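>> received
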Amino acid sequence: MQRDSINRRRFIRIKFPFTIHLYIPEMMAISAYTEDISEGGVKVTIKEELKVSTETELEIYIQQEPINCRGKVIWVKQRDSKFVEDEVFFDTGIEFKNITDSEIESIKHHLKALRSTEGFIE
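>> returned
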C-alpha cells in the first residue's frame, strides 16, 4: 500500500521563493529559489539531476544573513517545462542536516510570519 505524501509530512511547509545556493563537491554551485520550505527541509526546482542521498552545503537567504547548513537529497522527481519544449527540470527535496537551533528558530519565525499569506501549504 502506498502512503499518502501528506501523511509523511512532519512539518508545515510554506510556498515562498527564498534564494538558495547548493554547494556539492565536484559540481558547480547551483543557485535557485525555494519552491517551499519547512523547519525540516526545502524543495527546489533545478536543471541538474541530483542522486538521492547526495550531501550538499546549503546557503538559504531568508533574511540578509544566510542560514548555512548541510542538507541531504531525499527525493527527486523529473518534470517537463511548461514553457520550453524539450526542457526538463527536477523537483528536489532536501532534508536539513547539522542545522543549529537558532537557525531552526529563524526559519520558524519567518514561516509563522508567512502563514497568513495565500501561499500557505499544510
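>> Helices lie at 5-8, 101-114.
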